[in-house]
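FORM 7B - TANDEM STRUCTURE REPORT

SECTION 1: FIRST PROTEIN
SEQUENCE AND TOKENS:
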Amino acid sequence: MAERDDEEREFDIRWADGAEEKEPSARARMLAARWKENPPGPQPFRAEPERKGRGPRSPWASTALVFGIVAAVILLLGYANFQAPY
């Protein structure tokens, strides 16, 4: 008899999915309350994260740094070969 009661109380996912209203998650409720008072500003798609203490960096700065390091390594290897006795 107790086994039958457990089967009747078993959670039915179809019954839960059929609910007319669904409660938002705690995070969704928190953000909705926060944004009601202070809405967030527009953000570009895949915005670059803000860095503290430094200004914005140009995307070319990283490229120039990489090419500079490669050029320095090439010059260093060329100088080492120039100085090596044959």
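SECTION 2: SECOND PROTEIN
SEQUENCE AND TOKENS:
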Amino acid sequence: MARARQQERLEAVRARVRAGGRRWTVAKGAIVETLIGHRGHLSVQEVHDEVTARFPQIDRSTVHRVLLTLSDEHVVHVLGRQGEARYGMADHPHHHAVCSRCGHEAEIPAAVVAPALAAAGEVTGFRFGSITLTGTCPDCA
């Protein structure tokens, strides 16, 4: 069941990229599949390590360039942590919680924080996109 859902997500992303007039390449497919297979966010090096296990011809600069392109297309999003960009799928609305001690990441469904963001927007006039909350994870608490 989980594998079928991952395949559905991959197909939806492929259709979205193609609908935007962009090519779907082996590298894009491998990178998106890698990110879909992880709950958290990965660095360029972590993505590269996983991708090259299956496609050794894909170099690190290609992984970096594809991740930037996918970010520009809003297929993935970038989460900065301790100076290192980490990439995750943006195919479902969510926000992030990051432990300020160990760096553990967790996704927060968008619906959970929507009322707070709406209230904050009314007070400030801001329109909020993705947010990252920092705190202490259960293991570090």
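SECTION 3: OBSERVATIONS ON SECOND PROTEIN
The radius of gyration is 16 Å.
Strands lie at 76-81, 84-89, 94-99, 105-109, 132-135.

SECTION 4: SIGNATURE
Preparer initials: ____
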